[in-house]
Amino acid sequence: MATHTPVFLLAFANDRAGSFLRSIAAENRQISEILRKLEEENYCELIVLPDANIRDILRVFREKRNRVRLFHYGGHADDYGLLLNSAKGQEEMLDAGSFARFLGMQNKLKFVFLNGCSTLEQSRQLANAGVGYVIATNQQINDRTAQEFSRQFYESMANGFGVEAAFQEASAGVQAATGGNTRALLFEPEASPADENGKLPWELHAGPSADPAWHLKLLESDVVAERAINLVGANRLEKAVKTLATHFKETEDRERFGELKVINRQLKDVDRKSRIGVLSDSESVQMYQRIADSLIQLANSMRSARGGGAQDEWEL
Fold first, then answer.
1. Which of 87, 92, 159, 280 has its CA 20 to 30 A from that of 307?
2. What's the mean pLDDT in 147-151?
3. Which domains are seen in the chain, by residue range?
4. Per-residue pLDDT tens over the stretch 252-264
């Protein structure tokens, strides 16, 4: 796995002795299957902790320093923390305030999903600590409901939706499944006030650092640079050009796209002259090498830049 590849971390925990969550294993399996496909396409490195404890969660964040973009938790929780399984097989509580401060130090963490009961206060702490997007619950929910909502949400995300759009689509999906009777989504639906019908138990909080353009298939500059350089090393210059062009369009990096257009014209010119025999073999090798060097230099200089532009600016 490339050293710059974003990491998606899934952590699950269950109460073995008390209130056992029957759908946690299914939630793990379904989300893992969705995100594993993205891993196979080199969009991410997926790490799953099926029996999570505090030590393992913190270890992943430290070992994958500033690479974790997504953290999902499934299990028992409340406003005060996440209920995990200790290394000795006992329960342990991950304190909400301390964990929020820790996650706030993870510079490139984009999104946290706390799919447990009554985690709303935790989401506020996370947003205040600097986490961009947080999904949390405003009351107790049943675990089958949690499983279904998370499945629909990550299916939308895996198809290129941003966090806000995926949240809206998953919300509409679970509402449709209940015929609008959203009290059926709760742990104790009969205890929910009648005027709460229609209100979903999940809430999306966007902090000051929330990035509306971020999605699971967004390739960051350092990842794209590494891919392009590897393609150049494999003498796949045309593929390297297309890889860089796609990224420059998405990030609206017009300056580097302009440089790439010049390189692309040079590549096409050398291809044409080589086919018709204008260049000798040694001349072709030298010119291809210069183009390869230019592509590597451009890839190594990549920085995302945002701005507007007409559609014809993005034609190679």
1. 159
2. 92
3. 7-206 (3.40.50.1460), 221-314 (no CATH)
4. 889 999 999 999 9
Average pLDDT over residues 141-157: 89
Q: Which residues contact 228 (CB under 8 A, 6 or more apart)?
A: 240, 243, 244, 295, 296, 299
Task: Determine the residue type at 41.
Answer: E
